[in-house]
Inverse folding.
């Protein structure tokens, strides 16, 4: 959501996993952005489950989260 790489979440997970400890979850990082990202994903999934957002947009959920973070 905040890294600017929403395309990497589903297609190249190994590359994203390799960043853990470096770019992601590094020592000294504040936890607030991680909580905000998880909560935003939870709420977005809630909207899909309750059919408030059409299910066909679910494949673009990480792009939706990224675009919403750029407005904050």
């Amino acid at each position: 959501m905040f890294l600017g790489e929403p395309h990497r979440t589903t297609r190249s997970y190994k590359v994203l996993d390799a960043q853990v400890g470096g770019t992601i979850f590094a020592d000294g990082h504040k936890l607030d952005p991680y909580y905000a990202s998880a909560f935003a994903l939870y709420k977005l999934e809630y909207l899909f489950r309750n059919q408030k957002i059409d299910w066909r947009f679910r494949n673009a959920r990480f792009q939706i989260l990224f675009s919403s973070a750029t407005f904050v």
Remarks:
- The chain has a mean pLDDT of 80.
